[in-house]
């Protein structure tokens, strides 16, 4: 049997492994602009459903366990009763959390809420008691001037 030489006429063609052929495609860097964006309404809905489902499972476990301990497992057995309580509570909480998270986060700040938020932000930025007193006195003086102008 003749020996095969690499590159000879009787040798098999040398082929690169698949991972080497695909590596330029997989490692190609694509310029992507990263921009922060608010979650969509569907994202908020999913997030609320997940939070509600988790809270509901925990509550279902507590109430289901209490019911099984107090009244017994019933004809279906302990595991079926507990899982029924957990799934019912998860569905209930998940449904209402998802609706609540969409309603809560859907509205933009109203024209009345925006100035209040800036005032709260300024109040949060107070670093010392003396600075807070100084800001309070300045606000009182501003209010006195405004009342004198109205009179």
UniProtKB/TrEMBL annotation:
- Signal sequence coordinates: none
Question: Where exactly are the transmembrane stretches of this chain?
Answer: 54-73, 85-103
| Keyword line | Membrane, Transmembrane, Transmembrane helix
The Gene Ontology biological process terms listed for this entry are: protein import into mitochondrial matrix; protein insertion into mitochondrial inner membrane
Q: Which SMART domains match?
A: Romo1 (SM01378)
**Which locations, inside or outside the cell, does it occupy?**
Membrane
Q: Which parts form a coiled-coil structure per UniProt? A: none
Main location as per UniProt: membrane
Pfam families membership: Romo1
Listed under GO cellular component are: TIM23 mitochondrial import inner membrane translocase complex
In terms of InterPro entries, this protein maps to:
Romo1/Mgr2 (IPR018450)
Family to which the UniProt record says this protein belongs: Belongs to the MGR2 family.
What is the designated name of this protein?
Reactive mitochondrial oxygen species modulator 1-domain-containing protein
Annotated organism of origin: Lentinula detonsa
């Amino acid at each position: 049997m003749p020996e095969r030489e690499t590159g000879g006429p009787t040798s098999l063609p040398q082929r690169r492994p698949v991972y080497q052929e695909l590596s330029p495609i997989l490692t190609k860097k694509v310029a992507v602009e990263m921009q922060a964006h608010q979650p969509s309404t569907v994202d908020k809905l999913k997030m609320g459903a997940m939070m509600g489902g988790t809270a509901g499972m925990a509550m279902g476990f507590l109430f289901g366990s209490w019911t099984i301990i107090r009244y017994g497992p019933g004809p279906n057995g302990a595991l079926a009763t507990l899982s029924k309580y957990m799934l019912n509570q998860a569905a209930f909480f998940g449904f209402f959390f998802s609706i609540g998270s969409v309603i809560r986060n859907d509205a933009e700040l109203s024209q009345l809420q925006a100035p209040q938020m800036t005032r709260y932000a300024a109040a949060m930025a107070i670093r010392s008691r003396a600075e807070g007193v100084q800001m309070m006195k300045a606000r009182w003086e501003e209010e006195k001037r405004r009342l004198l102008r109205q009179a």
